Amino acid sequence: SDHMENICGYLMKYTNLVTGWQFRFFVLNNDAGLLEYFVNEQSRHLKPRGTLQLAGAVISPSDEDSHTFTVNAASGEQYKLRATDAKERQHWVSRLQICTQHHTEAIGKNNPPLKSRSFSLASQGSANSPGVQRRPSQNAVSFFSVGHHRLPTGKRVPIMQPDHLVDVREMMSQAEGQQRDLIRSIECLPASGHLTSLDQDLLMLKATSMATMNCLNDCFHILQLQHASQQKGSLPAGTTISWLEPKISLANHFKNGAAQNFPAEINKPASVREEQSIAEPCQLTREPEEINPDEELEDICDDKEDDLGAVEEQRSVILHLLSQLKLGMDLTRVVLPTFILEKRSLLEMYADFMSHPDLFIAIASGSSPEERMIRFVEYYLTSFHEGRKGAIAKKPYNPIIGETFHCSWRMPKSSVATDAGTNSSARCPSEQATPPKDAEGQAEPDYYTVKFVAEQVSHHPPVSGFYAECVERNMCVNAHVWTKSKFLGMSIGVTMVGEGVLHLLEHGEEYTFSLPCAYARSILTVPWVELGGKVNINCAKTGYSASINFHTKPFYGGKLHRVTGEVKQNMTNTVVCRVQGEWNSVLEFTYSNGDTKYVDLTKLSVTRKRVRPLEKQGPFESRRLWQHVTESLRDGDIDKATEHKRALEERQRNEERLRAETETPWCTKYFLKDGDGWVYHKPLWKTVSATQTQQTDSN
After folding, report:
1. Name one Pfam family in it (predicted).
2. Cis omega (within 30 of 0) on the bond before 461?
């Protein structure tokens, strides 16, 4: 039914991170077009605690669950609400949408469009000119006059003729120029005073004008396609159709943050000047560096990414960014705002996937191919929880080309022997025998060492290579990942293109694997992360494989972060193990013999990685490279963090431009191109093979 109905009842309202969700009594006033709420039903005769004008509002069911929805008012204010069930949510959403549509149409009828079709600032003078002085009661939008022509009623729209398309193209060019002038005028406003370039209304105007230009651009493209198809029907076969005009290319300065001005060079902090003046990487030493694990110290850095306050405060900036994006648009070259960054590089995030080295090392200790595959699946599924540092949707730094990250882990051998694996009693002979001795007769350490190195090997496309090895267990893993991100509306999807290979040299086995996609959901409210997609793990030698599904949450019902999978023997098509649960909570493994094992990821011990102190790191190692950005984020100084980040990115662009002009290829440090992938320059399988060859020759 589409009739208007006054409804009331209790809903949960999200207040803030501290208070969380609270029950409030809501009243939908259809006559006034208002959504009001009170502390409880008994207080509804008092003044409402809050009121939203529904005219021009957007009512959106959330993709978090089947109970939540948001009311986004035209003023920018937002209510995030939760009903008791999906049926009640649908009832509220439908009534709110009907009321919103009615009052929005009423405003359109009562307010005819202005005759002017110009975009102009009242004054483009200095910051002290009277036109820029703004009275407190004056709305920023009143500085602009925006209008359009309306077709006379009853007249049919004529069929578009070729010369009409030329006229449309000319009008589009004029509109694009006017919109560019509008943006430039806003950005030339002072940074402080009554009317600034960061005014909420002006940011909204920038966002909506940009969205309008995108829409007009798409419409014009449709007209071109329609005209071309009509022409094609009347032309001889084989005639080539070319565009009347090239498709409009929106100016580069519309990219987020590209037109912002920063203080002159003399006013920049010394750390920023240092970031911009680091020499061209290829002029520095590009020879691989052997990192001594004894120089690394246990990491004491503990940056928790649980502060979402900045995201709520910066909604207008996010709206401005979203206005520049289109569905399916590649975000690789889009500059994202600094406040959504987490305090680590993407290369370090890959290292954090190794935070359970006991499970990684235990793979090689499996007594059979079946057990080794199951152990690998267990390690694989437990790696994402710590790698993501929870479900908060913040983004790691985009690595600079040539950036590297080194670390290691030390794991007591007794811990690996007693705690890891599906069968803790199964140990390889080297673990049960007397501890071996080195060439000098000294006992080897009672711990295993896992070494890790990562490098950003390409900028466009952004490709990272990483490698980890445990020499004592004769095992290593090599992987390369190309991160492709796309805008999906109210979420962002990241596809991890690439492949990893785990080598168990003691058994002569190789396990190939891929990575799931990641999604940042509800980017306008409280963003959160989920994983999705199907990944496969295969071992060609043993014939065992695993198929793992990361399930994205359906619109109605269902659980978050759900994962299912099975391990099978391909020759007999026999399933030997099934797994289900949540990748950030509890996993349940069911074996073919009927046994069941539960793994609670929230209780798994995390082994801290070991890293070199900053003063011993090279200029292109992640933590030293991004140290000023990280420090500014820790201090909550977003502007300063943005300035340091911009300096690094600008330096990278200058270096890339110089290499293009001089036709100088980029030279990597630790990884070599191998077909479509990248391989560590000195992998363990080559070292072991060379050692065995030398032993054979000496005998």
Report:
1. PH
2. yes
- The token duo for 405 is 């990250």
Domain boundaries, the chain: 7-108, 293-416+446-615+669-680
**Reduced to 3 states, what is the DSSP secondary structure of residue 428?**
coil
Confidence of residue 328 (pLDDT cuts 50, 70, 90): low
Taking Cα atoms as reference points, which of 582, 581, 584 lies closest to residue 596? 581
Relative to beta strand 34-38, strand 50-53 is: antiparallel
Residue type, 527: P
Secondary structure of residue 150 in the 3-state scheme: coil
Euclidean distance between CA atoms 58 and 547, whole angstroms: 41
Cβ proximity of 610 and 354 under 8 Å: no
- List 574's β-bridge partners, or say none: 569
Contact of 69 with 14, CB cutoff 8 Å? no
Tokens of residue 68, six digits: 């939540």
Digit-coded pLDDT (tens) for 208-236: 777 777 778 767 777 766 666 665 554 44
Q: Which CATH number fits domain 7-108: 1.10.3210.10, 3.20.20.150, 3.30.70.1350, 2.30.29.30?
A: 2.30.29.30
38 DSSP β-pair partners: 25
For the structural domain made of 293-416+446-615+669-680, what CATH number should be given? 2.40.160.120
Distance CA 681, CA 287 (A): 11
Q: Rounded to 5 degrees, what angle do the CA atoms 475, 478, 481 make?
A: 155
Per-residue model confidence as pLDDT tens digits over 21-45? 889 999 999 888 999 999 999 998 8
Residues 647 and 276: beta-carbon distance below 8 Å: yes
Q: What does DSSP assign to residue 392?
A: B
What CA–CA distance (Å, rounded) separates 260 from 650?
A: 13
53 neighbors 33 (Cβ within 8 angstroms): yes
Q: Are 347 and 403 in contact (CB under 8 A)?
A: yes
pLDDT computed for residue 111 by the predictor: 57
- Kindly report the pTM of this predicted structure: 0.58
pLDDT tens across 101-129, in order?
A: 888 877 766 655 444 333 334 333 433 43
Under a CB-based contact definition with an 8 Å cutoff, are residues 330 and 491 in contact?
A: no
**pLDDT of 404 higher than 90:** yes
Tell me if the bond preceding 190 is cis, omega within 30° of 0: no
- Cα–Cα dist 78/98, whole Å: 18
pLDDT at 157 over 90: no
Reported confidence tier of residue 501, pLDDT bands at 50, 70, 90: very high
CA atoms of 12 and 69, how far apart (whole Å): 10
